[in-house]
Amino acid sequence: MITVLCIDDEADIRELIVEELVDAGLAALEAANGQEGLEMILSHWPDIVICDISMPVMDGHQLLAEIQVNHPELSNIPFILLTALTDKENVLTGLRAGAADYLTKPIDFDLLMAKIAGCVTRIENDRTAGRAL
Fold first, then answer.
1. Chain-centroid distance, C-alpha 7
2. 3-state SS of the chain?
3. Less Cβ around it within 10 Å: N or C end of the chain?
4. pLDDT in tens, 73-130
5. How many separate domains does the chain show?
């Protein structure tokens, strides 16, 4: 089963995302900030991470950089950055840092689930190719 970690400091948004994930048949984990998210990533190795950018303690950009620099074994986990920051520079910053995708608030859940489905397809294809070797 695919596991998705949702990191967002806004509990109501996090709960809505988790509900959508579970309804789609995915396992869901949650964290309220980047530091909690890092701990969840290190202990659970989720398949996909949905991560808000603007959070206390450690923001989404800092978390992504921490994974890329200090935990390269986890750097292939797709990160979908979630934010209210819609300007092009923020999108480019996230994508250049290694994010797989970017989604703005308010959340379009159909778009979010389509992005997750794309990640799931790539993960399953990688797993199948790995078994074939």
1. 7
2. CCEEEEECCCHHHHHHHHHHHHHCCCEEEEECCHHHHHHHHHHHCCCEEEEECCCCCCCHHHHHHHHHHHCHHHCCCCEEEEECCCCHHHHHHHHHCCCCEEEECCCCHHHHHHHHHHHHHHHHHHHHHHHHC
3. C
4. 999 999 999 988 777 887 888 888 889 999 988 999 999 999 999 999 988 888 787 6
5. 1
Domain for residue 67, yes or no? Answer: yes
Which pTM does this prediction carry? Answer: 0.92
CATH code at 38?
Answer: 3.40.50.2300
Left if phi > 0, otherwise alpha if psi is -120 to 50, otherwise beta: which for 45?
A: left
Kindly list the strands in the beta sheet with 79-83, ordered across the sheet, starting from the edge strand earlier in the chain.
27-31, 3-7, 48-52, 79-83, 101-104
